[in-house]
Amino acid sequence: MTLSSSLTIHCVDTRHPLYAAEVDLRVAVLRTPLGLARETVFFPFEDESLHFVALTSGRVIGCVLFHQKSETLGRLFQMAVDPTTQRSGVGTKLVNFLEHTVRALGVKTVRLHARQDASRFYERLGYTVASESYIEVGIPHRVMVKNIFLFCAP
């Protein structure tokens, strides 16, 4: 699917009307294919996290969450893009938007647990592998990290 110029990205919270559609997308893309229950998509820090959703024609087609762990470090997690729009730039736009937003909050380093089959996507966005492969939710993952701090010389 080719994206129209109507793609917008919004930051929402767990009380926002778009949150339910975000959760449905996360379950459909990240849990159902693995045979995992809906409840496994929720994190203890869900309410304290930033939720970014990508919309087109009023429909949630992508999402990514961010949890700030310290003043300068946070974790990107639960990245999901509707299969009909994958490989169209939605994921890249979501990650770029997230990085821009959290950089303004003082975050300098973003970490994530990438599914092994998604690690090339994150590498293209400047993330580097920071761990050996390990099993999470029954499939191989790797910790990846990116320094998003912009240094401007005087």
Structure explained in plain terms:
The protein starts with 7 loop residues before the first strand and ends in a 7-residue tail after the last strand. The chain has one domain (8-147): Gcn5-related N-acetyltransferase (GNAT) (Aminopeptidase, 3-Layer(aba) Sandwich), CATH 3.40.630.30. The mean pLDDT is 93. The radius of gyration is 15 Å and the shape is globular. The protein is built from three helices and eight strands, in the order E-H-E-E-E-H-E-H-E-E-E. Strands 1, 2, 3, 4, 5, 6, 7 and 8 form an eight-stranded mixed β-sheet that branches. It has 154 residues and is an alpha+beta fold. Strand 2 and strand 3 (59-68) form a beta hairpin.
Global shape: globular
User: What is the chains' assembly state?
Assistant: single chain
Architecture, according to CATH?
A: 3-Layer(aba) Sandwich
Report helical residue fraction: 10-25%
CATH topology-level name: Aminopeptidase
Radius of gyration: 15 Å
Q: Can you say what the CATH homologous superfamily is? A: Gcn5-related N-acetyltransferase (GNAT)
What are the SSEs and their pairings?
Blueprint lengths: L7 E5 L6 H13 L18 E7 L2 E10 L4 E9 L8 H15 L4 E7 L3 H6 L3 E2 L4 E3 L2 E9 L7
Parallel strand pairs: 4-5
Antiparallel strand pairs: 1-2, 2-3, 3-4, 5-8, 6-8, 7-8
At a glance:
This protein has 154 residues and is an alpha+beta fold. It has helices at residues 19-31, 90-104, 119-124, and strands at 8-12, 50-56, 59-68, 73-81, 109-115, 128-129, 134-136, 139-147.
